[in-house]
Write a structure and sequence with these properties.
Number of helices: 6
Radius of gyration: 24 Å
Strand content: under 5%
Order of helices and strands: HHHHHH
Structural class: mainly alpha
Length: 107
C-alpha cells in the first residue's frame, strides 16, 4: 500500500501550511527551539504528552500527526450536525403530514 508520511514530515507540512515558526511552536509547547527543530528534522521523537499538545494546537488527530492516517481529524462535529439536520427534516415532514391530515378531516 501507500507509505504514510513520517511524524517529522507531517509536522513540517503543518508548520509550513499554517505559517507557524519554530519559535511560536516551541513557546506554545514550552520546549526549546532546538527540540522543535529536531522533531522537524526527524532527529528526535516527542513524548506522548507533547504529541497530544501538538494535536490540540494544530487541530489534527494523533494518527494523522504520527503518519498513521490520511484523515486529519475524526469529524465528530460534522457527523453531529448531519444528525441534527436529519432530525430537523423529520420534524418538518411530520408537521407537513399532520397539516395534510387536518386538511383531509375538514373535507
Amino acid at each position: 500500500g501507500m507509505t504514510m508520511a513520517t511524524f517529522s514530515e507531517r509536522l513540517d507540512e503543518l508548520m509550513e501550511e499554517r505559517d507557524v515558526s519554530i519559535r511560536a511552536l516551541s513557546n506554545h509547547l514550552y520546549l526549546s527551539h532546538t527540540t522543535v527543530q529536531y522533531y522537524r528534522k526527524g532527529r528526535s521523537q516527542p513524548s506522548a504528552d507533547t504529541i497530544i499538545r501538538m494535536c490540540q494546537f494544530f487541530g489534527v488527530s494523533a494518527d494523522y500527526l504520527l503518519g498513521l492516517s490520511c484523515v486529519r481529524q475524526h469529524d465528530i462535529y460534522g457527523i453531529a450536525n448531519t444528525i441534527d439536520a436529519a432530525y430537523a427534516k423529520m420534524d418538518e415532514i411530520k408537521h407537513s403530514v399532520n397539516d395534510a391530515m387536518t386538511l383531509l378531516k375538514e373535507v
